[in-house]
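Structure in, sequence out. Go:
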């Protein structure tokens, strides 16, 4: 099964660092654990058949990414429950997101 790293592009200037759409740069620590500068330590699980993947972080809960859906993810947990829209190139680039369930813009609470 392909992991998030196999779906990413390698940063040739920094060993162990990769980039993937919607998440941006991250460090692969192995065994599914990644470090993303805006989110901190996260656990990532990818699906080879769909290229979709789940990300878990204590501050956000579970987030589902689909590379075919730009600027939107499904969230289940502290961040939101349902679809959210993020205005930047990556999820945490801007400090706000639109929570469709709550029908309002919200700020990141880390």
């Amino acid at each position: 099964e392909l992991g998030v790293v196999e779906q990413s592009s390698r940063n040739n200037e920094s060993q162990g660092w990769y980039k993937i759409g919607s998440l941006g740069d991250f460090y692969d620590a192995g065994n599914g654990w990644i470090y993303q500068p805006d989110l901190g330590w996260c656990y990532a699980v990818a699906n080879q058949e769909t290229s979709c993947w789940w990300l878990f972080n204590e501050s956000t809960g579970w987030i589902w990414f689909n590379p075919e859906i730009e600027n939107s993810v499904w969230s289940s947990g502290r961040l939101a429950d349902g679809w959210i829209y993020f205005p930047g190139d990556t999820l945490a680039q801007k400090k706000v997101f639109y929570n469709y369930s709550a029908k309002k813009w919200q700020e990141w609470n880390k």
